[in-house]
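We emphasize that the prediction below concerns an isolated chain of 191 residues; any contacts that depend on oligomerization or on bound cofactors are therefore not represented. The input was used exactly as deposited, without trimming of termini.
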Amino acid sequence: MAADETPDYIVIEELNDIEIRDYPPMLLASVIVSGDRQEAANKAFQILAGFIFGDNQADDTIAMTAPVTQARSEKIDMTAPVTQASTGENEWRVDFMMPSKYSMESLPKPNDPRIAISETAPYRAVAISFSGRHTDKNFDKHQAELDALINERRLITEGPAQFAYYDGPFTAPFLRRNEIIYRLAAIASSG
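Result of the prediction step, given as a token string:
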């Protein structure tokens, strides 16, 4: 997944591998698929890759962006760049961030009716970055670290965790950039 464009977020605070970030609005192409996390990511990638590689009404190729994200959700709008989110038991929503040169009007329309196009509002998030394989064990370990910081700092999250993949399967695991991202609703007062 060598990508030319990644989200243009602003780091508000750094805490080792954890950052609090502000994200601008983003245009997303999304699909909902079923299966476990890894199976769903593969299914969705095939569908969304078809769209950006020319399976759209303009027959245009759209540049790949990173990361590809995946998360469980309660049928809420996802706001990560390219995300996978669960919409129920073994259902996931996967989002590809579209290049910033496009608007809702100028982005080619997908031919596949399973693909939805949406635009996020600006939002704040907390994220942990780490390397390694895209395994449940690796993600669980880092999600526990992020969850502990969220509880310690009394941050209020909105929606489920999003799993972000910046690199493809042929990248050496120690060179891969992965993230777990939670959208923040507010910061609780400490008094």
